[in-house]
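Checklist before submission:
- one chain only
- standard amino acids only
- sequence pasted in full

Submission:
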Amino acid sequence: MILNNLTNRGATPALIATLTFTETRHRTIADNVANWNMPGYKAKHLDTKGFQQALRSALEEKGSDFRKVLDVQSDQVRTNVGGHLEVTPSKSPNRNILFHDGTNTSIEALMTDLADNAMVYEATNTLLRGYFDGMRKAIRGTI
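Returned file contents:
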């Protein structure tokens, strides 16, 4: 109970949701890269802007009440009953591209998406690591 109260304060719930989203997006992009030259393959897509809007709305609704669960809801992202984020990629194209072999995937665009997503993941991970390192130091009584 105490640990839950500590991790449900401040920016921590938003950082955890962002980490979950970027992890799933990374797997989705990697799957698209693995299949990019397969004829007829339709890439999966996770809408970053849609997630950010849903996260903003959830943060506004939650306010500063640490007892409330961050309830993120959109067409691809939702908070389940246990309070964990579930992310479901869509198969609708994220760009208006259709190649002659029936694919809708550009390897250059995928590599750009992968790099962008990796930067967000690393920044989020660094912020969370700093928060938990601070908690660890407080628990141990070290500065």
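Reviewer check: The longest strand covers residues 77-79.
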